[in-house]
Specification:
Elements (H helix, E strand, L loop, with lengths): L1 H29 L3 H22 L3 H25 L11 H4 L9 H4 L4 E5 L11 E5 L5 H40 L26
Antiparallel strand pairs: 1-2
Helix pairs in contact: 1-2, 1-6, 2-3, 3-6
Length: 207
């Protein structure tokens, strides 16, 4: 019963992670945030692998999933520090998120709740094929939306790590106990021996 509860809980956590990652992937695509897009893609693949390992009783897949979650927590912690400009990190370094391929920032910068976008006409600050805008009236600034999204990812990852370790330990214990009982040891199952019987029949010849 405990193993079933643990598996079901882990599947629920993985499902929530999958929904949160897909939602985040959509908005990162809209904002051309290539580094988060790549990280989200890898995360989605590993979460699917973790769900497969949970359903198919593959504890090695769950170990890989748990190791990835440690890296995922580190990545999201970096995003939080980046948007809060902790230490030497600054949002002026756009190449960290876009690989220096565009000047786009978070999609939430212009589309946050209550944000009013006003284009600045005849601005000399705008490079070619770009325009300068001012954003005002936001109920919640875009950096705090990104921080909140990363915090949710970290919270789900911590729960997923704990349950992945627990379920993988249960799977491993079950596998060890099966080997100890001796499903295929020398005193267990033995195939039936083939016996060969030759029945002699009298030979009649015509006289």
């Amino acid at each position: 019963m405990g193993k079933c509860d643990g598996r079901c809980t882990l599947l629920v956590i993985c499902s929530l992670q999958l929904v949160a990652a897909l939602q985040r992937q959509v908005f990162d695509f809209l904002g051309y945030q290539w580094a988060p897009i790549l990280a989200n893609f890898l995360h989605i693949m590993v979460v699917i692998l973790g769900m497969f390992g949970t359903v198919q009783f593959r504890f090695r897949y769950l170990i890989f999933y748990a190791v990835w979650l440690v890296l995922w927590v580190g990545w999201n912690s970096f995003i939080i520090c980046f948007y809060l400009e902790v230490g030497n990190l600054t949002q002026d370094r756009d190449f960290l998120m876009t690989f220096n391929t565009s000047l786009h920032r978070s999609w939430w910068m212009e589309h946050g709740p209550g944000c009013l976008v006003t284009p600045v006409l005849d601005s000399r600050m705008a490079p070619d094929d770009h325009h300068v805008i001012t954003v005002s009236g936001c109920l919640l600034d875009y950096q705090y939306i990104e921080v909140l999204s990363s915090a949710i990812q970290i919270l789900l990852a911590l729960f997923g790590f704990v349950y992945a370790c627990y379920v993988s330990k249960v799977f491993q214990d079950d596998e060890d106990s099966f080997d100890f009982i001796g499903g295929f040891d020398s005193y267990g199952y033995q195939p039936p021996q083939k016996s060969s019987h030759l029945q002699l029949q009298p030979l009649y010849t015509a006289g």
